[in-house]
Structures are given as structure tokens and as C-alpha cells.
Amino acid sequence: MLKTRVPGDLVEIREKVYAGERLSFEDGCKLFESNDVVEIGRLANHVREKLHGDKAYFSHKYRLYPTNICVYRCRFCAFRVSKGDERGYEWPAEKTLHELEKVDLTGVAEFHIVGGIHPDWDFDVYLDIVRELHRVYPDIHIKAWTAVEIDHFTHQTGKSAEWVLGTMREAGLGSLPGGGAEIFDWEIRRTICRTKCTGERWLEVHEAAHNLGMKTNSTMLYGHVETPESKVDHMLRLRDLQDRTGGFRTFIPLAFHPDNTRLKHLPRSTGAEDLKHIAISRLLLDNFPHVMAYWVTETPEVAQVALSFGADDLDGTIMIDEEIINAAGGKHVEGAMTKSRFAQMIREARRTPLERDTEFNVVREY
Ligand code: SF4
Q: How far apart are CA 346 and CA 56, in angstroms?
């Protein structure tokens, strides 16, 4: 009988994974040091299948970016422009509702809303967007504003994160997306986004949301100037908070795209690196229900393979205006990703496609 080859440096980790034991900081660093992506993926797939069998989720959502005008200048960001730039746009509540009249929102489960920190928009502009969307589309879940935006609102209003989140929730906010986390470690953060909220503050905002009973997502931006240690530290800080609150739903490793950014000299991560990050996330974040492969940044082909490297979710359909996609990074996403294309993509990866809502209730089996 053929025996599976297990590289020496991963033997102990393999035993821990099969015994259901939690991995340590040192284990996480070892995984990043290892070049055996196939073995790391195999271990992550073991965990993924224990949790989800062959199920693979996607959702039908609509993304909104109300403005690309932003006071911050994160070095990895190709989306933001300064006030006065001809590429700038502003979609406060009335304009957003007007634009949505042109869109078929049948079956859409979620509005996913993030954007720039506009220098002239006060808290009420952002609040109105949520309130008006909820008034006109009460059945569509609103997942809006990263912890960076929530932190900004606390400075604008002089109120606590709890107050801001509670006020937003009364207006119709359902949950928080995971953006703005980047890398928590200040040594890295000060190089890539020194002016926005700290990693500690990001975690505080999410803890406040969890304490109000709100679920949130989390992300990690990799492929820039981060170190393996800073990535393991990032994930373990999320794991610690999850131990306390249980409020995270999904972890999303995000591959950095250098084009049109102030870090454009850096190379783009490879498909193998993308798969490794997904697999290590699944192994370290043992208390997270879901790990997502974000097909927009990783390509649909890598996302398909990711479904056997720890990921169980592929995010959602894209049905946003091309003008906005262009503004959000200067790239065209090739055509809309429809529900049937998603289902086919998942079936090709030998998984069972399930359309879900924000809370992972199954809307339809394919
Ligand atoms: S990442 Fe967000 S906060 Fe940073 S510059 Fe871009 S839009 Fe502004």
C-alpha cells in the first residue's frame, strides 16, 4: 500500500490537525515557511470537509460604493481619489435610490456597502443611505461600513462605537463587512495605512458589534510588505476575539493587487500563494465557521481549487455598474458572475452549490 509522504516539518502539525487540536503561533509560522502547499491544502481540506462536507456557498448580492472620495491615502488603495478629482463621484441616499431603480434586484439577498471617507459627508449622510435603502428594500440585508468607517463616525459624532452601531442598526444595518483590517501589526500598518484606525481599534469596533448581537466578517490583506509572523499574529488576534464573542461569521484572505497603487512595484501573489493563505487560514481559525475564497481578486479558476484548500464560500454574484468597478481599481471584471455560472463553477470543482443569504440560510440548492 502506498503511504502518503509527510514532510518532516509538518508531521506534528498534521497530528494536531487530525486530533482536532488548536495550532499555535509557532505552528502558523511553520506553515508559512513550508513550501509544501499540497500537504497544507490537504490538511485544510480535512478541516473544511469535517465542517461542511462537500457544500460550497455563494450569495446573490449587490455591491454599493457610495463615494470614492476619501480623506485617507492607504498605499495599497487604487480606489480613492481626492476631493476635486474629476474621477470622484458621490452617491448619497437619493442618488443611490435613483440609480437602483435601473437595476433588477429580484432575488438579491444583500447590499454590501463600503466606500471612501468623504471629507464633507457627516454621519447623517451615511446613516441616510442605510435608512433609505432599508425603507425601500426592507427584505434585503444591509451589510455596511467597515470598522474604519465606524471609527470615523465616532470621531465625527463624539459618541461611542456602541452608540454609532446602535443608531445604524435602528436605521436598518444588519451586519458589518470585514474590510479595513489589512494587517493589525503596527509595524506593517504604519507602512501601508498609517492614518486610519489601528488594528486594536478595528478589533474593538467588531467586539462592540458582537456585543450588540451583530455578526461581522473579517479580512486580511496579504501580498505587500507583511511578514509571516504578522499574518499569524493577525489571525490569532481574530481567533482570540472569536473565542470571547463568537461574532465572526467568515474570514476572507484578500490578495493585494498592486496595479495603480503606491506599491505598484510589488509583484502580484501567485495562485499557489493564494491557495496557501486560504489553507493556513482554515487551519489557524478553528473557531470560524467559514473561510471565503474571493474570486474577484483570486480569479474564478483559483477560487475553484480553493474549495479543496479550505474555502467553503465563494462570496457572491457581481452585478454592479462597470463604471464603479473601473473606479474601484481601474480593472474590468469580465462580465457579470451569474448564479448559474457560480453553480457550474462549483460543480466543476466537485462540490455541491448552495445559494445562501447573509446568515448562511440556504436559499436554493442547485
Ligand atoms: S482603503 Fe479605504 S480608507 Fe484607505 S484610502 Fe482606500 S478608500 Fe480610503
A: 7
> Quick one: DSSP state of residue 6?
-
Please give the Cα distance from 197 to 186 (Å, whole number): 10
Residue 330's pLDDT band, with cuts at 50, 70 and 90, is: very low
- Ligand 1 near 197 CB (within 6 A): no
Render pLDDT for 339-351 as a digit per residue (tens, 0 to 9). 888 899 999 999 9
Which CATH code fits 27-351? 3.20.20.70
Q: What is the distance between the alpha carbons of residues 135 and 139, in angstroms, rounded to a whole number? A: 9
pLDDT in tens, 161-183: 999 999 999 999 999 999 999 99
Q: Is the CB of 161 under 6 A from ligand 1?
A: no
R_g of the chain, CA atoms, integer Å: 20
Work out the pLDDT band at 323, boundaries 50, 70, 90.
very low
Q: Is 77 in the pocket of ligand 1 (CB under 6 A)?
A: yes
CA 354/CA 346 separation, integer angstroms: 9
Grid cell, residue 83, equals 476631493
Nearest CA to ligand 1 atom 2: 116
